[in-house]
Amino acid sequence: MEINKKFRKKISSDKKNVNLGKMKLKVMTFNIRGVKSAKPELELLLQKSKPDILLIQETFLSKKSYRCRIPGYTTIESKTELTKGGNGLLIGVRNQSGLVLSEFINYPTWMVGLVQGKTKRNENFRINVVNVHMPSWGIRKKRTMNEIQSFLKNRNGTKDAIIFAGDFNMDIVRSDQFLKKSGIDFEHSRVSNSSGSRWNKNDMGRMIDHIFYYRIGSRPNWCIANKYLNISDHFPITTEWDISAITRPPKKRKINVKKMELVKDQLISSNRFDLLATDRIDINQSTKELIDTIWEETDRLGAITDLTDPSEEKKIFLSTKTIKKIKKKQKVFRLFTKSKIDIETYIKAKNVAEKSKKQDSKKFYEKKLMKLNEYLTTNESQKMWNFIKFSTGKIKTSITAGPVLDPNNVLITDSESKLKVWETHFKNLAKDSTGNSRTTEKWESLLNNDVQIFPECDDSITWYDITSALKNIPNNKSPGMDGIPNEVWKLVSSEASPTSKVARIIFRILKIIWDTGKIPETMTTSIIVPVPKKGNLQDPNNYR
């Protein structure tokens, strides 16, 4: 027995070595038939299964409705349009997967999201994720098929991987034939535990929900249908591949101002600032090390907070009691599908779960109103508006995350090339096309030479000038590229002379900048947020 244990241990350790540099990519497609009523149970499903890429059909969300937010996921949507068809589509990427999602193509009945990442081998990872809800018949079906064929033919010959999933309204053979007309050799991820993907009048229907793939690099480990989940008449279809491990971005952190106030004396008088206060260090190095040391010291003093996505902090409002009733309903549904109980028993369990869900929902919104009332009575306007924006879904999203057109009108999708397009665009905006900024000839004739002289402008900066400016800096503002809030710099504003170690460093750096006109490299980078105007948002010229 001891030998067998050692042998099993060796095998398991060998498996771990084989799997080094690999990760699981899990993809789920689900025709939900209305996301609003099913959202609590959908969130329970996602908490358990944790798919990296999520495709949802028939959300039934119109353009008038708010953006659909799913906890822990970044999502893009195609809204319902009565005149053009389509019942709403959604593509989501799990935030902790290391993948980045941007919108590529958007039609009422199908859409494409570009999923990108960087492997641990420093290779680019790109997948075109296509979500489709194929119309069942008529002109709309023909139009959708032609649009998809045109897209796939343009993709043929590229090195991008493609995942094509959703409700095809066709069986496996017809769906496979349709996709292969484009010339791309798609493979089908075959469901192993079900012959159909939906219930049709309490009987198993056809397999019309599919996941096809191209250039993923390996065959699926498995593909299953959750056929005992009764959120919709369709089943969630989930599949999994082994892919190269994706580099996950480091957790975002911020300096907690309230915690920092408690340790401010220890921070500004830390011995780690001694060397930086001398003249032996170059200003660029001194500024960089000042920022790094502030972060390290605030971390050591416990004044750093790990940031999480607000959507990840959101917990399902359902009570433990309700979750148990939902699980019981699913067990009863499973027995019902196997004809072990009658329909009345299932309907009773379903009604009990639905009633409990409504009660929890009512309590949840009452708590929301109480919280909003608290912010109003305590005059916390910033918290109040943040709460309203988050509750309604009207929060800012990165509009410029999608593809952009370069000067030659070519659509650019990868991140590095998009940054170059934006860089070129803003350089052209700042370019001096007239040359008037390089000469004084034009301005001498326009300006009055009889002006008052202010000799004090030539004087060197004083500590009083610095503290006066620091006192006027507003609080509760977003920090710059260095991540250090204004409140940190204001810690030295009450000093009559630069006595603390941080104050001496700040005074030295600002004095050199004032006297020499040389600005440290860490201070020359700014954050630009393009504001969209009317028109095509893929064109950089439609931003200001």
TrEMBL record:
Endonuclease/exonuclease/phosphatase domain: residues covered: 28-234
**UniProt-recorded name of the protein:** Endonuclease/exonuclease/phosphatase domain-containing protein
Which molecular-function annotations from GO does this UniProt entry contain?
A: catalytic activity
So which domain of life are we looking at?
Eukaryota
**What SUPFAM superfamilies has UniProt attached to this entry?**
DNase I-like (SSF56219)
**Which organism does this record belong to?**
Smittium mucronatum
Pfam families hit by this protein: Exo_endo_phos
